[in-house]
Amino acid sequence: MRYLVPLALPFATLPMHAAAAQTGTRTGRAAAQPLARATFLGSMDEEFRKSDANKDGAISRAELASYQQLAATAALEQRAREAFAAMDKDRNGQVSAGEFVRANVGPAKKIDVAPMMTRLDSNRDQKVSLVEYRSLTLANFDRLDADKDGFLSPAEQRASGLVK
């Protein structure tokens, strides 16, 4: 299972989420389907709106940090729920000392958005406009779309690491 965390590409997990929403690939139940550029863009715009907490049309460093921290916390909470379920071998809703000793859940890591801001904030005003956001994220889509047909085929998605 993949979680929303900063990767090398700006909002690089977003296409994975869009593809997963289309096909169920987050759970590994179905093969990836072609991902249209328009679907990709719609998902990116939704991610931008979620990140823009004050709805001023730009993502500040603080908003980006807050959004990424919330996403990391949600991922950690999901991991904790999964870890509890995995530890509770007798499925009684309680984790015994023996079950707990076998657990391996780590602390949340601190999110550093500086690399993402460097890539996204092209005019260096400490805010990411929708234009800046789209230009980089669509450039990523175009780079991944090897055959330039406006879709990320399952093979292109696998080659880019968006799906397994």
Tell me the Rg in angstroms: 18 Å
Helix-strand sequence: HEHEHHHEHEH
> Could you tell me the mean pLDDT?
81
Main β sheet profile: 2 strands, antiparallel
Q: How would you classify the quaternary structure?
A: single chain
How is the largest sheet built, in terms of strand order?
A: 1-4
Beginning-to-end CA distance, first to last residue: 10 Å
- Shape field: flat
The DSSP helix count reads 7
* Contiguous uncertain segments of 5+ residues: 1-28
From the helix content, strand content and strand pairing, which structural class follows? mainly alpha
Provide a descriptive summary of the structure in words.
This protein is mainly α. It has one domain (13-160). Helix content is 53%, strand content 6%. The chain is built from 7 helices and 4 strands; from the N terminus they run H-E-H-E-H-H-H-E-H-E-H. Strands 1-4 form a two-stranded antiparallel sheet.
Output the keywords.
two-stranded antiparallel ribbon, 164 residues, disordered N terminus, two-stranded antiparallel sheet
List the helices and strands and how they pair.
Blueprint: H1 13-23, E1 35-36, H2 37-51, E2 58-60, H3 61-87, H4 97-101, H5 114-120, E3 127-129, H6 130-144, E4 151-152, H7 154-160
Antiparallel strand pairs: 1-4, 2-3
Could you give a short description of this structure?
Helix content is 53%, strand content 6%. With 164 residues, it is mainly alpha-helical.
